[in-house]
Amino acid sequence: MEVMIVVLIIAVLAGIAYASYQNQVIKSRRATAAVCLEQRAQFMERYYTTNMTYVGAPAPAACDDVANFYTVSFNGAVGARTFQLQAVPQGIQASKDTACATLRLNAQGVRSVTGSDTVANCW
């Protein structure tokens, strides 16, 4: 009987620990996607410095670290002085990270999300 109680306690603790671990994995992938957007925005600024326009800039490449979990792309058309980048969750990230969903960053450095959570919590 005592062994059964110990096994039950271990099972409950393992269930809680695994759920917490999964939450941290989702958050770390989101943070990596945010860094990827920042890197792509820096590339766009370098492109603008050289060409004095964002038009003609190549589509953002996916970052290796998040390629399986996020698709990085432009959101809409790129203007002479404007652009908006987005990281759209894919696969398991899309199903588990509904509070933040798509991360966005524009030419002015304004961050946004399409989910129900706040920008401060998602970025």
From TrEMBL:
- Gene3D superfamilies the record matches: Glycoprotein, Type 4 Pilin
Might you name a Gene Ontology BP term for this protein?
A: type IV pilus assembly
A Pfam family? ComP_DUS
Annotated signal sequence is none
Q: What's the domain of life for this entry?
A: Bacteria
What name has this protein been given in UniProt?
Pilus assembly protein PilE
